[in-house]
Amino acid sequence: MLFPISDDDRHLMHPAWVTIGLVVMNIAVFFLQLANPEMIYAWSAVPFEIINGVDLIEPTAIDAGSQSVVIPQLPGPTPIHLTLLSSMFMHGGWMHLGGNLLYLWIFGDNVEHRFGSLPFLGFYLLSGLAASLAQIMMGPDSVIPTLGASGAISGVMGAYMVLFPRNRVNAVFFFRIISVPAVVVLGFWIVTQVISGSSSISEIGKSGGVAYAAHIGGFIAGVLAGIFCRAMLRKEPDSVFRDIYNKQRNVKKYW
Asked: Left, alpha or beta for 74 (phi > 0: left; psi -120 to 50: alpha)?
């Protein structure tokens, strides 16, 4: 398993303020959740609510294999579709929050510098919406709340892979730290998501767990955005990585 922990940011010329702001906002919303745990059942995105445009306010029982589980439901915003936005900034626990923000911190600044701050913010939100809709389409009748920034961050990772395939990413691999091209780390990640998602597709809408469809949907949205960016900005901006690549390609060996 390749677990990224950092990348080479030597070419970045100034702080990525939108990425920093998104990290702060996710943390702030999480502390609001800790102060008001019922917030999860009011402001998370529930597929049935989104598809039907209704706000469930009564507890709902679902079949979870050998037993029945009751899912609390509380009044949400009006219109209920606003939960597609609010759910992007909510998390199910410290590990969920920490993992998502680590990936956002590693990959977000590079993509923000390439897109520009405001376009990056719009891209981030649209990736999150695409991810949520992908998950909802896999289980439109589900009453299980969905939440987390992972769909939007998957979009960031998809764009990063297209825009910065040669960037070196430091990752943990079997208790060792190795440095490999971004395309290897992120390509490996999306393959594992597809495999895990295909093996659990029969359970979507029946029980909680990792929203693999959201990860895949967000990643595809990011890849498409990255391709569009490359088409509009055909010349890759100068960077430390590009200079090193060109020097290595042009060097002559003497024996």
From this structure: beta
- Mean per-residue pLDDT, 114-118: 92
For residues 203 and 62, the answer to whether their CB atoms sit within 8 Å is: no
How does DSSP assign 145-159, residue by residue? Answer: -B--SHHHHHHHHHH
CA of residue 151 relative to chain centroid, distance: 4
Contact 245, 181 (CB under 8 A): no
- Closest by CA position to 172, among listed 182, 160, 185: 185
Two tokens, residue 137: 């389409």
SS3 6: strand
The C-alpha atoms of residue 152 and residue 238 are separated, in whole angstroms, by 27
Report which of 244, 231, 226, 224 is spatially closest to residue 110, judged by C-alpha positions. Answer: 226
Classify residue 88 as exposed, middle or buried by CB count within 10 Å of its CB (0-12, 13-18, 19+). buried
Residues 36-57 have pLDDT tens digits of 999 999 999 999 999 999 999 9
Cis check for the bond before 79: say yes or no (omega within 30 of 0): yes
